[in-house]
Design goal:
By secondary structure, the chain is of the alpha/beta class. Helices cover 44% and strands 24% of the residues. Strands 2-1-4-5-6-7 form a six-stranded antiparallel sheet, covered by helices on one side. Strands 8-12-13-3-14-15 form a six-stranded mixed sheet, with helices on both faces. The protein has a three-stranded antiparallel sheet with strand order 9-10-11. Helix 4 packs across helix 6. Bound molecules: adenosine-5'-triphosphate (ATP) and magnesium ion. Magnesium ion binds next to helix 1.
Length: 362
């Protein structure tokens, strides 16, 4: 699966862009502020319905426009699938997949799975557990079809439980009813995550071994509670504390993927470049597993890949992505740094020069 064509209108400084894309590597270079990250933001909007830089869409829309629109033509198993996203300053949105409107962004995500590596990806290691939960859940969502529904039902049960905890008095009977629902869904979520990670972690280790000579990484899933105990017992033991804090302290909403290097938290030890290699390995491993499970490819957005990486590591990342066969969109300031990140023998590379919001294919 890959994107053949991309049209962008009114997104940041990209007023009218029409690109014909390579199924393999698309490399975008240009000076600071030229529009490289905005181009990746446009692709993200197409695959997720929102920006990776801001919560609201207004700053993303070009100052002289009321709407921004991104249109893409996806090639999937021999068929052309048009995708379209339009968003206005007033908050209106229209998402279309294959000519049909879709009501929420998961319809887009299913049609065009994206993996992103940008400056926020460092949070995968040095940020809170929510970043690592998002990482795991991306994978589970794309390989396990019941996951979204189970997750939404769990969110509802958690919300109900927390609202009971905010009442003046504890209603033990009602709490017991919600706990039963909570535990059942929590265990399903944990089971899906455990299953996924059992396949993913060995792949991360393999990819890491190719990218880095460092040894001694350890990945451990924390369920969100001490799962040598029954969750129902944990909730019962927590009840007074949960009531005092007005929140549920244990459950899959508190899960984490703990990453250690030589028995210490990896984020305390590794350099910036080493962290970038580690998070890249995590994302690339996900792409390999996704391909294996679904027979499809996801698309990669790699913003400023050359930064923090030396030539040897850039090329190793490039070679891995090349071997994976996924369509990639890579940006960088210096043309030479970008070109040298991708194997020489590869002929399908398309280079684009970005300047003042204009993009020209070389
Ligand atoms: N809503 C908007 N309307 C018009 N222009 C905007 C808007 N928002 C941002 N810009 C401008 O669009 C340009 C795009 O910036 P972008 O982040 O894409 O640059 P970049 O090429 O990734 O630069 P860098 O190399 O510094 O990361 C910037 O010059 C920015 O000031
Ligand atoms: Mg940028």
């Amino acid at each position: 699966m890959y994107l053949k064509k991309l049209d962008v209108h009114g997104l940041r400084n990209l007023r009218h862009i029409q690109l014909s894309l390579s199924p393999s590597a698309n490399l975008f270079y240009g000076p600071n502020g030229s529009g490289k990250t905005s181009l990746l933001e446009a692709l993200y909007l197409l695959g997720r319905g929102r920006s990776f830089r801001t919560r609201t869409l207004s700053p993303v829309i070009n100052q002289g426009e009321e709407n921004c629109t991104v249109f893409g033509l996806l090639e999937k198993e021999g068929n052309d699938i048009p995708l379209g996203v339009s968003r206005s300053r007033q908050g209106d949105f229209l998402f279309k997949v294959n000519g049909q409107p879709v009501t929420n962004s998961s319809g887009l995500a299913e049609a065009m799975p994206l993996l992103v590596l940008n400056s926020d990806s460092f949070h995968l290691l040095d940020g809170g557990p929510q970043f690592r939960r998002q990482f795991i859940d991306w994978g589970v969502f794309h390989v396990e079809h019941n996951y979204r529904d189970t997750w939404q039902r769990f969110r509802r049960a958690l919300k109900q439980r927390n609202s009971l905890l905010r009442r003046d008095r504890m209603d033990d009977t009602l709490m017991g009813v919600w706990d039963a629902e909570f535990v059942c869904l929590a265990e399903q979520i944990n089971h899906y995550r455990e299953q996924y990670l059992a396949d993913l972690i060995p792949r991360i280790t393999e990819v890491l071994a190719e990218l880095s000579p460092l040894e001694g990484f350890e990945f451990k899933h924390y369920a969100g509670w001490d799962n040598t105990k029954k969750l129902s017992d944990v909730l019962l033991a927590d009840r007074q504390r949960d009531f005092q804090g007005n929140t549920t302290y244990h459950g899959p909403h508190r899960a984490d993927l703990r990453v250690r290097f030589n028995k210490q938290p990896a984020s305390d030890i590794l350099s910036r470049g080493q962290i970038k290699i580690l998070v890249t390995a995590m994302q690339v491993a996900q792409g390999f597993l996704y391909r294996e499970r679904t027979g499809c490819q996801c698309l990669y957005l790699l913003d400023d890949l050359p930064s923090e990486l030396d030539l040897e590591h850039r090329l190793k990342v490039g070679k891995l992505l090349y071997r994976l066969g996924a369509q990639v969109f890579i940006t960088g300031v210096v043309r030479g740094d970008l070109r040298s990140s991708w194997p020489d023998e590869e002929e399908n590379v398309r280079m684009f020069h970005v300047e003042h919001g204009q993009i020209t294919q070389e």
